[in-house]
Structures are given as structure tokens and as C-alpha cells.
Amino acid sequence: MVRTDPRRVTAQVDGRLICAEYSEQTGQLCLRQDGALVREWFPPHSWIAIASVAGARHWGTRPTDDDLRALLRNEMTLLRSPQRDVS
User: Which domain of life is it from (predicted)?
Assistant: First the structure.
């Protein structure tokens, strides 16, 4: 059965409220910081983003709360890392 409401997990990181939302109906995956949209993915990119941190369970199409928490940890690490100039 497909969920009609988005699956949502929230974490407090460095004083900021970070949220990951996933809609099983559309496959849309959003990452929000203090309510503002930071990143947004649509299938198949959303499925790949989830599967890359959570393993092949459900192939990213039906993530659990733990899968979304793993995505949050990964994305926050990427957002905190200094940007390198790639030539």
C-alpha cells in the first residue's frame, strides 16, 4: 500500500532544524533546513540517493525512517565539507 502522506524525519544539527521528506506517491525527496528547501530529487535520482546510503532495501522506493536518517547524516556531512576547486 502506498502512503498518501510524505514520510518525514527531522534532526537538530548545529542548531539548525533539518528535515528529509519522501513521497511514495511521486518519488519526490526533499531536504529542508529550517523550513527552506535545500535539495530536491525526483525519480530515479531520489531512489538512487536513498539506496546509496541505505543499501538495496526496497531500492530506495519505500524508505524507512532509518533510511531517511542515513540520508540526512550523509547530506549534512556533504553540506558541511568545504567546497574544493576542481579543475
Answer: Bacteria
Q: Does residue 81 lie within any of the structural domains?
A: no
Residue 80 lies in a domain: no
The CA dihedral of 27, 20, 59, 49, to the nearest 10 degrees, is 100
Give the pLDDT band of residue 2 (cuts 50, 70, 90).
Answer: low
Q: How far apart are CA 84 and CA 33, in angstroms?
A: 23
Establish if 1 belongs to a structural domain. no
**C-alpha grid cell, residue 45:** 535520482
Cell 522506493, residue located? 61
- Per-residue pLDDT of 48-78, as tens digits, reads 999 998 876 667 788 999 999 999 988 888 7
Does any domain span residue 45?
A: yes
The two counts, helices (H) then strands (E), for the chain are 2, 4
